[in-house]
Amino acid sequence: MLRRLSLRDFVIVPELELDFASGFSALTGETGAGKSILIDALQLALGSRGEAAVVREGASRAEISAEFDRPEAVLTWLEEGGFSTEDEHATLLLRRVIDAQGKSRAWINGSAATVAQLRELAEHLLDIHGQHAWQGLTRPASVRQLLDEFGQIDGKPVAAAYAQWRQASEALASAQARQADLAREHERLSWQIGELNRLAPADDEWEELNAEHQRLSHAQSLMDAARGALEGISEAEINAQALTDDALSALQDVLAYDAGLQDTVNALLGAQAQLQDAAHSLGSYLNAADLDPDRLQQLDERVSAWVTLARRYRRPPMELPALLQEWKAELAQLDAATDLDGLQARQAQALKTYQREARQVSTARAKAAPALSTAVSQAMQQLGMAGGRFAVALQTQEEPQAFGLESAEFLVAGHAGSTPRPLGKVASGGELSRIALAIAVTTSQKNSGAGTLIFDEIDAGVGGAVAETVGRLMKQLGQHVQVLAVTHLPQVAACADQHFLVAKAARGGVTSSDVQPIQGEARVAEIARMLAGERLSSTSLAHAQEMLAHSSRAIEPAADAAAEPVARGRKVKP
């Protein structure tokens, strides 16, 4: 639930900090006082779009902080996102700053966050029902979503199966439409692959070919150089090896007279060994050397074949092996694309999977629809629509859809004996508001995924005894989840466990809004103002006191019955 909301330089609020309790809290005030400012601030804290207009005139930025109890459902999400979960009180602190240029920054538990992450958290923290909530209830997608949430129906598997079926269908249709083009492409690739297969270029072969070709094409020069080197080392009349032996012999004869010559002797011994090794290696090289003109011709032809194909396909020669593998992969894809039998089998299997998942959803919706119809009809009886009837109509779709095999529509009969009609055709604005309220209360019970429910003037168009029932319904709902309601009805405000007064004042030519919790005489005066206007009288004050005393008594069984069904809530933007 929401624990605290702090604002600084937000719209016409210089500074504000409010603590919230569990149960039902009402926000009241004169028209234009800024009752919805708190709702707007909460929406910003939870990721709605921010703009420079929310910054109070003359200020550099607006700051909004909201502290919630931390739902266990988001603990893993916080840990995976790298956000702190070490708060001993298990709270969740959200902060949003918007500067005068409209730039926005956000934090979760003190760590920088994205607006998208705030929106993800919002799903677990609060639901908002606005005064025009009924408008969403006329849209098929919203109706279907509400029904699925009420019945706790998971539509993700059927949506995934639908996506697979669509993908398979599109692949089949594309292959059928492109058969001629695919055949030509298949022929072209096959011919090119055949050319490269005849060459059979191996990995690293190009480098090896070049190395061997260079050696054979310069074989005579290499042999002449090796033979000359061998003669200079050991075979000529005067050679390096013989001269080294003579030098070594001369020094060894006098070494006994001066030990300082030992290093030179050692160096000559090393040179003698190296000359012997060099002579042996050159001898072996010359014995193995061969001009081999036939092999050189083979290499010339092989290199020429590589170069020819490389030029034809405009690739460096060393890339030919990779090009061959690339074309083979493309040909395999073409084979799959031209396999109409295989594509048809894949499409049929995908459709079978989709139909299985969709039938499970259809069965669940057929069970949830009458339960929701009964629950909302019961709530309508308490909202001045005695004899009214609510129904959820399911219509089978001609074609598969991502949401399943049927659409949903809300039908309403405003009084006994009338035929239920589509909700959008109900003429009375007051009826629309009451029906929307009945649906909101019915679907926002203690098992709602959110810990806080906000009703932003959803009681518009309601009055009299019905207004009192609305207040009792809100109070009853507050026993399960935290409820915040912006209201203009004294009957609703009188039922609140906590009452906030929103007031607007002008100081020094600057208008500002303030919110304060009220109780005792201040609350009696506000209820009296809501009843009779600004000119309070003893009669209006007495009426207000009586209303507060009456609303503090236990909730009547009728209200409990109307709010009995339990289901998940949903978001409706005001």
Number of helices: 20
The main β sheet shows up as:
6 strands, antiparallel
Q: Can you tell me the overall shape?
A: elongated
Strand order in space, largest sheet? 2-1-4-5-6-7
Uncertain segments of ≥5 residues (pLDDT<50)? 556-574
- What is the tally of beta strands? 15
Rounded to the nearest angstrom, the radius of gyration is: 44 Å
Q: From the helix content, strand content and strand pairing, which structural class follows? A: alpha/beta
β-strand amount = 15-25%
The mean pLDDT is: 83
Helical percent range? 40-55%
Quote the distance from N terminus to C terminus: 20 Å
Molecular structure report:
The chain is of the alpha/beta class and 574 residues long. The chain has helices spanning 37-45, 75-80, 115-125, 133-136, 140-150, 156-177, 179-199, 205-217, 219-235, 240-254, 262-288, 293-312, 320-337, 340-381, 429-443, 464-477, 490-493, 520-532, 538-551, 557-562, and strands at residues 2-10, 13-19, 24-29, 61-69, 91-99, 104-108, 111-113, 126-130, 389-401, 404-413, 421-422, 452-456, 482-486, 498-507, 510-518. A hairpin with a 2-residue loop joins strand 1 (2-10) and strand 2. Helix 6 packs antiparallel against helix 14, helix 7 packs antiparallel against helix 13 (320-337) and helix 10 packs antiparallel against helix 11 (262-288). It is elongated.
The gist of it:
The protein has helices at 37-45, 75-80, 115-125, 133-136, 140-150, 156-177, 179-199, 205-217, 219-235, 240-254, 262-288, 293-312, 320-337, 340-381, 429-443, 464-477, 490-493, 520-532, 538-551, 557-562, and strands at residues 2-10, 13-19, 24-29, 61-69, 91-99, 104-108, 111-113, 126-130, 389-401, 404-413, 421-422, 452-456, 482-486, 498-507, 510-518. It is of the alpha/beta class.
